[in-house]
Each structure stands twice: as C-alpha cells, then as structure tokens.
Write a structure and sequence with these properties.
Shape: globular
Largest sheet: none
Strand content: under 5%
Helix content: over 70%
Number of helices: 23
Distance between the termini: 28 Å
Amino acid sequence: MIKWLKQVQSVFGTSFLWLISLVYFTQGFRSFVWTAVSYQLKDELKLSPSASQLVFSVAFFPWSIKPVYGILSDCIPIRGQKRVPYLVISTILSLLPWLILGLKESLRSSSGPLMFLLTAQNLGSAMADVVVDAMIAEAVRSERAAFAGDLQSVSWSAMALGGICGSLLGGYALTNLQIDRIFLLFSVLPAMQLLSCGLVEESTLGNKALPDLANSISSHLGDQNGLVPEKDVSKEVPSRNNSMRRKKSQKNNKARTVITIKSEAVEKKRPLVMQWFYSLKAAFYSLCKAFKQPVILRPMTWFFLAHITIPNLSTVMFYYQTEFLNLDPSFLGTARVVGWLGLMFGTFIYNRYLKHMKLRRILTWAQLGLATLSILDIVLVSRYHIEFGISDKLMVLCGSALADAINQLKFMPFLILSGQLCPPGIEGTLFALFMSINNLGSTIGSFVGAGLASLLNVSSGSFDNLLLGIVIQVVCTFIPIVFLFLIPKEATGLAS
C-alpha cells in the first residue's frame, strides 16, 4: 500500500495528491455536519418532516447542475487558469456558510436564511467536485494513463475514510457539543482546502477557450442504435475505394487546417467577452448534440425515472427513528458507518460476481431488492419484530447496511454505462451531465416524498399514516422495472 502511494506521489506530486485526498475526504466527512443540520431543522426550527425534506431538496439542488460548473471552468479562464481559481471560489463558497451559521444564531434559527446558506454551501461543494474531477482527468492524460485507476482509488479511499470518520464523530459531537461549535469545527476542513489550493501550480492558458467539439462528437456518435467506431466502418468498405478515400481525407484535412487557422485568427480579433460567448455556445451545442442521441438519452431516461417514480421518505424515517424510537445521535452515526461498509460490500459483490451479467437483469434484481428492503421498514413501523425479540437498533442497522449495498449495485451499472456512452472529447462534461441527471432525479424523488408525507399528514409526533406511505413506496419501486426496455439489451456490467 505504501509503495503504491509512493508511486502515485512520484508521478503527480505531493501537493496535488494531498489536495485531491483532502477534497474527497472533506466530501465524505460532510456527514459530520449534515447530521447536525438535520437536528437543527427538527429540534430548533420545529419543522415537520415534509418541510424539513423540502429544505434538503432545495439545498442539494446545486448538485443537479454540475455540467454548468464544468463548462464555465472550461470556457472562461480566470487570469489564464481554468482550474485552481474555480477551486478557490468553490472552496470559499463551501467555507463561508458554515462560519456564518456558526457565528450568527439568528441566521441558523430561521428556515429562509438557513436554506439559502446551505444551498450556497452545496454550490461550492458541487463545483469543487467537478473541478477536482477535471484536474484528475487532465493529470492522468498529461502523465500516465496507467495511473488513472490508481488516482481514482486514492479519491475513493479518501472519500470512504471521510464518510466513516464523519459518521462516527458526528454522532459523538451532537451528544457533547452545541450545533454552532459543530459548524465551526467543520469549517476547518474547507479552510485547509483553501490554503492547499496555493500549493498546486497550473499552467497559464492565456485566453484559450474550449475548442468546438462538434466534429469530434459527430465522428464518434453513430446512428440511433449505438456508437459506431470509425475503424469498424472502414472494414465494410471495399479495399479499392480506400485510396480514393485517403486522397479525399487528405484534402479535407488540409481544408480543415486552413479553416482552423483562419478561425483562430478571427477568434483573436474578437473581444474577450465574445470569445467566452462563442466558447460557451460551442460547449452547450456539443453537449446537446451528444445527449439527444437515443443511445444516450434512453438509458439516462431510465435512471432518471428510477428516482422520480419512488418517493424518498428518508427524512420522515429520520424523524420516526429519533422521536418515536428514541434512537440517539451516536447510534445513528454508527448506522451510517455500517451503511458505508455496506456500500463497499456492494462494490465488491458487483466487481466479483455481477459485472458480466446483463444490465437489465442486474437492475431488475436491484429494484426487487429495494422493494424487499422496504418491507423491513414496514416491519419496523408496524412493530412486528418486537414479538420475535428483535431490537429496533438491529433492524435499523441491517436496513442501513443492506440499503446502501443494494443502491451501490444499482449505481455501479450507471457508472459503467455512463463511461461507455461518453464520446471522446467531452467525457468529463458529459459524465458530469449524467451525474447531474442522477442527482436531479434524487432531488425530485425527495420532493415527491415530501409531498406524500404532507398528503398523508405525517408530522413530528404523528406517524399514524407512515405505514401507508411505506407501502406506497414499495409499490412504486416496481415501476422502473416496466421501463427497462430503455436499457440496451446486450449491455453488461463490464466496462468496454
């Protein structure tokens, strides 16, 4: 392990490796402070479960527009740099809200200002996530492609470690510290991240804008049935036509070179603002042209539907566990640690046993698993487990671990399929778009859950209709199975 880390460090540098690890550790450690936010909404602001879930849904919306941050950093350099300045801005956005909430009691005690500051904080966190992903992609491309998996492993390990530490310490902090102290303590990590930004050097790019990627996309996107590599097309053409095609290709290349030189000369004469405008326009055009392809649109539609058709009742269950079951913060922190371990276990099971299976089959079993798991919530709310001597804590621990494991089995195909569908040239931005669709679906699912809780009059101290809400959730879990025809029939869980 140490030897492997030294190899990665020798390639990318100590400061870069430290910054990447710190950013992802901070992302995982966010559970430390967001647990405190949940209790602030419930205990101090006295919000109902549906109102609390609405606040969370709005606050996490910035994660649903991640491509915007990637396009901005690609197209509009700040003082000749595309990454570090945006990382500094995003880190400041991540830092200031926690400092303000920690120092100003009036702002954290009012739902409006609190929701605004939490949204700004998520804006900074989401932007930092996109910028760091871009920095990793550029570092791997400029150094050694063989280290791509190693750098991603460092990122994943740092986030997992942060998640475990944040979950463990979050429960302990809530038991022993005031919420304002928790906000101020967490701000130490973004402050360290801000200082670390000055240690990483980035080459100056001048006013170079994002190149037009339309030709790159059109050459790699095939017909509506899938991606058609150029090398496969050339094999279908008779060999006697190859020489004519080569000559024609050489002429086209020369013509493109002349056009490129002329366009670059025209580009330099344009005002800086106009360069940014045309660069942004080209980037959005490239994204739209890629995304409207059926081979990309159909699978992403399924993952989106898989979120919005199932009401998310996580905040309602949090209220039920803390108010009705009287579970303390330290135990709920332990449950989240078990959830992280379940997530790792799900990743292991997928890579070990499921990656050669058809995606439709994997996703079918994942939905059935989620429906079965929701039955555990039915048992928990109906109190049937008491008759068999099973404690509430054991039910919550098992539910947390199994839920995260099954959700990871569902998320891994999404990652693999997203990687397969991204055309060369805009992998990073299009992948950010895929992640945003996934996040937007989760946000809308939370809105649907909040609406369902409000409709059933589930409120703090009144959980009579919660059982009906969970039954509706179980029924809705089967809806995405009906739309599995949107997933490519022959696609497997193995990255190509």
